[in-house]
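#structure-requests
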Amino acid sequence: MDAKNTYIQKYLNIAENIVGKKINITHSCGATDSRMFAENSVIIMHGINGDNIHGDNEYAEIDSILSLAKIQKAFVDSLLND
């Protein structure tokens, strides 16, 4: 992954403006379908805040879900306006 990629930088800028703080890029291990697309496209995976993923008492913070939705909409809108 190239953190300097135009799309990744655009996404980061939008996300940081919406959440009001710096977002760090990290690499994630695990099984996702993104591996099927990684050679031919840019993959951005952005999660929500919560805990106990796939376990007992799993939860997600509603504000985090709403922020993610705003970020994704703003990112898609920015692509349509390019």
